[in-house]
Design brief:
Two copies of one chain form a homodimer. By secondary structure, chain A is α+β, with helices and mostly antiparallel strands. Chain A has eight helices and 14 strands. Chains A and B meet through helix 1, strand 2, strand 5, helix 3 and strand 6 of A and helix 1, strand 2, strand 5, helix 3 and strand 6 of B.
Chain lengths: 332, 332
């Protein structure tokens, strides 16, 4: 561990895992925190989850920090198999911020919450001096009620489980990168930023056997699969020719030399379920507006525990490593 | 309202009320948020509250941002008459932060949570580029169970209620100011930073008739009393000669020309209760380690609704205005 914090430690990869495992978790360890999921399962079938949003730019094609701050936290609840109930909202604002921008962001936040039928029940606002924050940081904390029959556990994957995704990869990360660097792509790239709780309710109704849900945000599918392969001590084998990609994002990835598996998503989930339930689950997902392009993209294996592999289109296999993390800082 | 955000809008005074009332609340309005208390009362006797901590310096006599982030949020739950159960924790960290400082702050945070028997059940860590934050920002969200017989309401004050405080005013704000400006006071000033949930449990047992509790943080007793006088449409008359003050803080206030009523506290509460219950409540408070210097400091009146008055030692009265807010930014 370095003596000083690096930017990479915030990007969802190896450096972040080091910060969490060597500094933060040992000091706070308790059975509820140690569940290690996207949120905590509390007594009374409650779920609690929290996320800070430090994205730049604040507005981007497909969303803004306000929409993201609602979707991201609702998704963490959804990944616990929970119906979202309440949100709290913290605003950390920089002196000199344009009030009109704040209004736009809060309007978008309020719309997204209303759409989901969720209320912001409490909040707090702080203002710091110019140059001591970056426009707007938002923290939302969500409280939800578990509707999945059992709590999910990152240790719960079983060999033979199939891996499903609800649509094209890497749209959020590439849209942010394009907006930030003002890259001149012909077709504008749009973030997939969306709240997945309704899709998850549909999925749980069709396939209550779902083993585990995870949204591949920072570090993308590669980080999520590596984390789960380690936690469950299984291998995960992904099929390159099954990975959904939209053509503009694919072109942008190729131009930038980036790997779709390592780029952040904000409206995608990975579902792991027993093979017998997968066809039923896939049909249910494809019947939902946020799952039209769902696909089975991989298999959980007993071999190579802790490792993620990709069967390439060319017919080879390559190891999918945990991203180091510095690819795209402040992506969410 | 200005077109750009001012620093004063974060300091708990008039400018902040304007930001909240003109920009933020209208966009998020709902019955639970509109309760306007330190936290939200949810179905099932749950309470939820959240606070961001952007204090500078990060370490100060009597505490640090870690201790503060636990105490502040536990206190907001306590002010709802709730027993704290769970916390979530967000860290927004600046690139280059000294890891040893992070460890000290998290150790202090963990100790304070353990002392209160409260677990950090979920969290999130973000890192932003050098110069885009100020070392460490922390957000904690608390979930608690109401133990007060009824929810408190800022509209609930009644003429004839007495106002009690659990000890000396202005210690946190003056300690921060002294630490920040490296003021050469002979006796070091210590923040009163403390978690008040146990004191509150004692108080509610002795006097379940308590009308309302509030912790006078940003903007101090002046801001809290003004807010409540307006909400309840009553007057509040404070007695200068009853206000507890410790001599070093009093000397520092005099030297700096500051008003004890407008300076932040982090281990103090104001309790409003029917006069008949006040002696019983005062005795209970004085019997608790965090209430030894408790005092009755004022009276709720039917006259001058919306106004706060101070009966001075000299025998006059003066209006206690809502602080404008720019006195001490980033005090909590």
């Amino acid at each position: 561990m370095n003596e000083h914090l690096t930017l990479a430690a915030g990007a969802g990869g190896k450096a972040m895992a080091e910060l969490l495992d060597q500094v933060i978790r040992p000091l706070l360890s308790n059975p509820l925190l140690n569940q290690g999921h996207d949120g905590a399962y509390l007594p009374g079938d409650l779920c609690m989850t929290t996320d800070a949003y430090v994205i730049r730019p604040l507005e981007f094609p497909g969303g803004d920090i306000g929409k993201l701050a609602v979707c991201g936290t609702l998704n963490d609840l959804a990944m616990c198999g929970a119906k979202p109930l309440y949100l709290s909202l913290n605003l950390i604002l920089e002196e000199g911020l344009e009030i009109a921008l704040l209004r736009r962001v809060l309007t978008s936040l309020a719309q997204e919450a209303a759409l989901a039928g969720v209320q912001v029940v409490t909040g707090d606002t702080k203002v710091v001096e110019r140059g001591k924050a970056d426009g707007i940081f938002i923290v939302t904390t969500g409280l939800g009620q578990r509707i999945a029959p059992q709590p999910f556990s990152p240790q719960g994957l079983q060999p033979g489980d199939l891996v499903l995704i609800n649509g094209p990869l890497a749209q959020h990360g590439m849209a942010i990168l394009a907006a930030r660097e003002q890259l001149p792509f012909e077709t504008p790239l749009r973030s997939d930023c969306a709240a997945l709780h309704d899709l998850v309710a549909t999925m749980l109704e069709a396939a209550p056997e779902i083993r585990l849900l995870r949204d591949p945000t920072r570090g993308g599918v590669a980080a999520t699969c590596n984390e789960l392969a380690t936690a469950s001590q299984v291998g995960i084998c992904l099929q390159e020719n099954q990975l959904p990609l939209d053509p503009p994002t694919q072109a942008a990835l190729a131009m930038m030399g980036l790997d779709a598996l390592s780029v952040a998503n904000e409206g995608k989930l990975l579902a792991f379920c027993p093979a017998a339930a997968a066809p039923r689950l896939l049909t249910a997902m494809q019947g939902h507006p946020l799952g039209r392009q769902s696909a089975v993209i991989g298999l959980v294996t007993a071999s190579t525990p802790g490792q993620v592999w990709l069967q390439t289109k060319a017919g080879g296999t390559r190891l999918v490593d945990m991203p180091l993390g510095e690819q795209l800082p402040r992506i969410c």
